[in-house]
Amino acid sequence: MDLVPALEEPLKKVLGPATAKVMAEHLGLHTVGDLLHHYPRRYEERGQLTHLADLPMDEHATVVAQVADARLMTFASSKAPRGKGQRLEVTITDGSGRLQLVFFGNGVHKPHKDLLPGTRAMFSGKVSVFNRRLQLAHPAYELLRGDGDEAAETVDTWAGSLIPLYPATAKLESWKIAKAVQTVLPSAQEAVDPLPDSLREGRGLVSLPEALLKIHRPHTKADVEDARARLKWDEAFVLQVALARRRHADAQLPAVARRPRPDGLLTAFDAKLPFTLTDGQRKVSAEIFGDLATEHPMHRLLQGEVGSGKTMVALRAMLAVVDAGGQAAMLAPTEVLAQQHHRSITEMMGELAEGGMLGGAEDSTKVVLLTGSMGTAARRQALLDLVTGEAGIVIGTHALIEDKVQFHDLGLVVVDEQHRFGVEQRDALRGKGKQPPHLLVMTATPIPRTVAMTVFGDLETSVLDQLPAGRSPIASHVVPAADKPHFLARAWERVREEVSNGHQAYVVCPRIGDEEEGKAKKKSPEDDAEKRPPLAVLDIADQLAKGPLQGLRVEVLHGRMPPDDKDAVMRRFAAGETDVLVATTVIEVGVNVPNATAMVIMDADRFGVSQLHQLRGRVGRGSAPGLCLLVSEMPEASPARQRLTAVASTLDGFELSRIDLEQRREGDVLGQAQSGVRSSLRMLTVIDDEEIIAEAREEAAAVVAADLELKRLPGLRTALDALLDEEREQYLDKG
After folding, report:
1. pLDDT tens digits, residue range 627-651?
2. Largest CA distance in the chain
3. 631 contacts 603 by C-beta, under 8 angstroms
């Protein structure tokens, strides 16, 4: 729920240009509606002080506390050499702890007068450490008592028994935001309610104006609960209505039903498989074949743990479509991955992939690769095979989307690693069919059910959660390089041991290392002291080859190498001609070398949880057990190290994705970190509010089925338009 027409008044008209400018620049708030939807993060109770014991380091904090004592001191400094420098030290307490406030120079006079022992006030500033004690330097403060007009105004501002604390910035303290909210609060009465009356009454939810009033000026904790329950519903419901309308629109599109011939290519392929499919693969394949047999385009998300056999399921779907006379295209995010898929699919199919060639099987087709870096002749031949229908299966990168690429009859699009493709690309490829083709989206990043409902809400979801027989467990350990350097030395010994046993290893680094000098140096000296630049492939490869891994065959792989070089390196590694591959995350997705058993991830704290899980999935793909070592210099108590410990402690991707979500801000889940748009989720937390999201999805489906254009629900229409301004619409499309 964002804007409502009555609330579109720009803040600069209401609050004045200076405050409005800070709100726009630092909080992304432009209108009265935006400000009303900037909810308090938490509330302080009148009689209860903030826990000083829980203050976050290096963050802006607001505390309510009492002055215990105040001392004015003089000192000598370069600016005041004759001992005329002044420093005011104020100690405040809240029963849970004490905190020192310091004021310097000319800034001491007012607080010296205001902050007498016994005075209660709100203090806001950045928490730092001085002489091993927490302190706030030059905090802003607001007295919670006074006399005359000032007292009346303060009591008025903080009327009610709960003090709202807002997400604030250094430029705008929480209580200034609170005062601004008080100014615009009367407009809340004009908020148009997006929820249908029957839904609101049926669930006992308060009206939207009442919810806005209670969230900003609660008298009791029950007020806050009422408001939150209502506002969460708005967010979940409006988003699910948007998704339900998309699903409805997609379901109206016509598509060609694709049913495999009883003894065609798919049957021949299944007959020559050297292993049996897992129950999960059978179940998901059945769901996909059911979708392909309908006259509306399939829109299915296939989630599968790293190594759960998604490619096999996708290949069988592609063969079914080829059997039915259509063509299938697989879109991969990188050339390395496209080449890898092409290799593994032609190997799995054998003579079935040699359509039109001598020695090709009777029921065979051609499998072509199309990437941006192919030679002209090979490219021309691939394009020809596609337009004539000679090639039933094409695997490629973004090059598939170019205008020149024409299909004979495109029936199925498989998108690998969905989160790397924008909707424009997905739709451009879908637009190449005579009618919309069926769509299968695959991801190895496990997505909790709630996120799947929220982010991929326009796709049906299938999950592969069993690993195929013969896959080995992966042991993961954190290597604390700073605390225990001998652990790192042992890590390199372990790599040598794996190689001497006939296996291979990966070493992953966050950076390539040939970045231009200028770019790498734009850092302040403080940054350098605190954070050295991430370790780089080229530097590490050099150090390893000359040091701990001397005598082993070490090669490098990164995204800026020419495509032919990348492919040659991968081929040598796959063929066992290289012992250790030092790479960036280009190996994160889909690279399959069963003989690689060990992986050392340098600066592992620089990677996200799901990325580490993806990377780790590159080892243990054969019958020998895998080993993943997460190297970090972060101190043991840091959140980064806790994240690594979590990754080391479980191989369950769904569990890790929950941990990942809980550690990141909710907005990032909805891709906001990438798109730069503020999250539309302010109240709803995707992990905790699973029930609300599931119920909202059902309600939304019913509302859309009964009234697709929402003619009877103008408030909901308005809320939708606000949610789906262009950027949000695109974002939802990107899924």
Report:
1. 999 999 888 777 788 889 988 988 7
2. 100
3. yes
